[in-house]
Amino acid sequence: MSHPTVNRRDFLASGLTLAGGLSLLGAAACESDRIAAPGTATTAGPAPAVGADGDLLNPPEIRSSGGLLTAAITCGTSATLVDGRQTLQPCTYGASFPAPTLRVRPGDLMDFTFSNKIVFDQADTKPGYGRPPRATNQTNLHFHGMHVSPIGDADNMLVMVGPNQSHRYLVQIPANHPAGLFWYHAHVHGLVTNHVSRGAAGMIYVANDYTDRLAQLGIRHRLMCLQQAYYAPDLRTLIFDDGNRDDPNLALSLINGSLMPTIRMRPGEPQVWSLLNASSSAFYLLRLQGHTFDVVADDGVPLVTPRRSRDTILIPSGKRLEVVVRASTTAGSYSLSYDSYFQGVDTWPQKSIGTVVVSGVPWSGPTHPGLDASGAPEDLSGLKVKKDFQRTITLAVDPNVPEGTFGRFTINGHPWDPSYSEWTSTLGAVEEWTFVNTTEQEHPMHVHTNPFQVVAVNGAPVPFEGTQDTAIVPRFGTLTVRTRFRDFAGDPILMHCHILDHEDMGMMTSFTIEEARA
Ligand SMILES: [Cu+2]
Question: Are 61 and 137 part of one and the same domain?
């Protein structure tokens, strides 16, 4: 059930309501089970974040079965529980903060009905801006980092779902899709910060044989959704503004919706943690007292060269890292925390976010789960890139436009303009882009549809280690990436800063990928 193919111009002329009004399909009844039975639909609902033994749980899951994930997911703003606190005006999927995880496998079809029941949009306060001006209460979904079609009923950023309307998403995951952590979130320009900051985000985990092997080895695999919850002074109403990030009462740093959870490990036990920064703007510099992280995957794609024994890992908004943590052989409590991080304008405060408790019978199993060697990405650094495909993308601030106003942030001299495509490329092309950051702050740039390989930072070559979809462009510096378009022609393909208020203020643009001409 696809809506007609619509191009960018028709979309603009249509008044932005392309996909609204599609009827609800015959989805199965809602369930409130923490984990849905395979193949059934669910809207989940508040689920316990902590198990009976006080250990942090993974978020609730909706799982595919027999190659198909079906669900009915409702985006709504009814009150829900966040860490046991009655919370007003969140913006959730299935009334769950965070949203249910979609667990799929390569080759699966995600076929689900997405309904918009947003009532409290809070858009009368800043930053309810955008181009074109956003229509109240619109929303949609982006499948962040997934290499899937950007058109039709898949990861199509032209889809807009109006209030009390529904849309059937049909996302075919390629059989050779990498296994790892991706995510889904709202993506209506001008309302992205508003929705995502209030909870419109959930994880997508693509599992494969490697994931199965972890389970067979008895190695614990934790999915951790790192989020901020910003409260109004009433300590009940969730808001999207990150301005009170330094106030520990108004800005909560949560893991799977839980404040200061306990994470249990046995002495010497290796665990795999898949970490998502689903906040609207925070930079997380994660540290585990007395331990190090082996980073084995970046943005859902296994690293060819893992980054071993890191004391801290930096996860900007939108990014995922998957790490192996091996518990100390010494029983005890170890603080999981964020170091203070200066982004160039904002400083994210140091704070504890949880406690790892090492106790019980020492681990006697394998000391490391090994690596997922399936689908290793291609090293593009040695290829010749045609001059026509070498591009410069300039990030800037317009000092004449006040903070909090559309037009403040620009790419290539202009803020987001849905009628404008930066360039047209073709399938098969290898492209090289140099992001030039003329501003005093870091911007984590995200590109839809195709991951990229970082080849240089500030002109210094970076050894090949894998691909990413979100990478920081240094302040007053450059980031050079390469990407190859193998499949999925489409228009528009978006790129934007994943500090979502920057995106809402204009730091987004798009390009076009066409079928190769014969
Ligand atoms: Cu930015």
Answer: yes
